[in-house]
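Repro case for the chain-ordering regression, as requested:
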Amino acid sequence: MAYQFKDIEAKWRKYWADHATYYCDTSDFSKPKYYALDMFPYPSGQGLHVGHPEGYTATDIISRMKRMQGFNVLHPMGWDAFGLPAEQFAIKNNKHPEIFTRANIEHFKNQINALGLSYDWTKEIATIDPDYYKWTQWIFLQMFKHDLAYVSDIPVNYCPELGTVLANEEVVDGKSEVGGFDVIRMPMRQWILKITEYADRLDEDLADLDWPKSTLEMQHNWIGKSTGVSISFSVADSDEEFKVFTTRVDTLFGCTYCCLAPEHPLVKKLVTPEQKEAVEEYVEASARKSDLARTSTEKEKTGVFLGVYAINPINGKKIPVYVADYVLGSYGSGAVMAVPAHDERDYAFAKKHGLDMIQVLEGDISENAMTGDAKHINSDFANGLDIAGAKAAITKKLEELGKGELKINYKLRDWIFSRQRYWGEPIPVVTLEDGTEFPIPEDQLPLTLPEMSNYKPDTNGKPPLAGAPSEWLNYETPDGRKGIRETNTMPQWAGSCWYYIRYIDPHNPNAIADPKLLEHWLPVDLYVGGAEHAVLHLLYARFWHKFLYDIGIVKTKEPFKKLYHQGMILGANGEKMSKSRGNVVNPDDIIESHGADSLRLFEMFAGPLEERKPWSTTGLDGAKRFIERAFRILDDENFRAKLSDENSGELDYSYNFLVKKVSADFEALGFNTAIAQMMVFINDCYKAEKIYRPYFEGFVKMFSCVCPFVGEEMWQMMGHKDLITFEPWPAYDESKLKKSTINMALSINGKTRDVLELDAEVTEEEAVKVAMASEKAKPFLEGKTIRKVIFVKGRILNIVVA
RNA sequence: GCGGGCGUGGCGGAAUUGGUAGACGCGUUAGACUUAGGAUCUAAUGGUUCUCCGUGCAGGUUCGAGUCCUGUCGCCCGCACCA
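-- result from build under test --
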């Protein structure tokens, strides 16, 4: 009958759906649990691309193996469904964004089901469901109550084009990550989450995670912990003082000027009348610059003298104070002490502005600043000390003077959590007439989005919800105080911060999830998704999880034990797939032409999961060919006749090695090599006189994890009534892996000269004897003296001659 | 500049972690079967002056190096004035 993939896939797709085959009873604790999670997709209008099935197939293979191994497997899927494209659709068509979003979800779900992924759809969630975002809002309220959410007028990344504020993480090169529009900095009233409060724990707990090194490193750098000293500089002839942060307090004697960021509040206060005009012009100019413009002038260090002087607390020296935009207002205290001799940036600034340079460490500063370690000079009591010693001595002195203290700073900043958008979770807080923030009572959740006639933000940054009906906007507290609802909404990240928790108990009306279930199912055992989320989503989710841990909701410190990033599938030409390059492959077309099993097999076989791999049409053909070769053994009567209930022993080694290798490789997500071994086994079956039926059944079980449709079909063809899904995972017999004879390399002076067939238990003397008789080795041994013999049993025999 | 990763046949990639380099697949070639096949099966397939040469390049350690060390070149990803 040949391999009719369309019929086979349609048949099992329907069967699995009708029978809810992959339902997971999360309250069944009788078996060990395994939680395999995919990063849930944003249901875009384009539908799935071929990158989606890659990660999804990986977790699906693991899920299927774990089920066979007797685990209770939770393998859910859902929708990260708030987002910009839906809002833009709403604005354009003046229709509710949910219409667009629900249609996309429907499309995605059909596509995903076509791939044969063993999701338990009874666990399906969407972040836009009020039953779901009720709990997103609930978590926010808990954060508010624990002082982790607050409102502030702060300079933010505002994108006029998108009409909203963006998080620092959402701004790339001064442009919005979505759309690539210009982003400017301006002060606005925003909700902020104190992620910095968790900076230390987010950093330290990275050590316990089984995550890609690069991702751990990225998070570590993003948090950017640095230890230094905060020093107070008083302003000469004034009561004012300002603080600077430095990691090189040892160079304090070399400080010849100070710099304030343009945003620093003291700039306006301190500037002298003579310098006022120049300074104000400079401050305004840098405010107008986008982040991109500010960073693109990397080499050029601009700044203006304020006209005032500060006192270096360590030696009482008067030094000039500048305003310069190479100092960031958002890091440390927004002010620095400048040591041109030992800091490259200060060096460049000092050269340009003709400022003094005092060398305080030995070394050459004629061309560049000297930033390495050396003996201190010109540093009074710190002379002769190295960096560490001078740091300690000067810090101690500053502490005695009351002018300095140890301080830890982070690059990580608090998370700007509000967006001037319609299509997001409403923030469940009301601003009362007296200006205070009132969290709405929990029994009033969910706070649902109101129906609107216009979804557009206004040009002043007023959110769309400001135009909501007054019944929605006006609020009265249970004790009769009046107020106006918050009209900002949460960012898209909110819903994805905790979705893995809701899957465990998705319909619970009374709690985020049943505590007993949470304790049993967390953490997630395996989490697979794109590397583009290495900082954003994964850092935010860890932050929320740690908060939920602190308030006793979850019992694990970290949400995701093991993380894997699937590599991107590139176009056939090795370039990134894109419409403009015309190299986009649509999974629907492949399912139509080759079938979902072939698509899955190809994507898993193409190369290591984490590597980027080019698409290959011939490779896809090859995947299908392999399925056909395996299928033929049951389908073709000549092959079928070879199946035997008696073991001829021919395939003993091949099969047992297969089971061992596939078990280990699957566990390590090494799917390409596992599949290669399956191919070897099928090749061996083709050569064999007889195929021992249980061996072939074992093969089909493992094969079905990669190709579930044809796997299930073949299982049925072998006469089974029950599904292959819950069959026990094959075992292997270690004793069958021992060969009686082995091929051992014979090398002379390290170069392989012959391969000897030897008894597996051969001794060194016997091996050497055989080696001496080798025709191939003879020319290299004749007339030589044996100096040394290296014999590694089962591996190699190396004879050193001279 | 800093951090992370990677360089192996015509191509995607293997290599028991220091022990026969090139598994498996793609492609190519030959043969079989066939009215025919771009289907299927079988076999061959790193290069080569037939003796060697081969894992980006140059050294080193070792009986033995794709694997370890030093230097160097190239590519990819992230961060980027963080004081």
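Ordering looks correct now. Chain A is about 35% helix and 20% strand.
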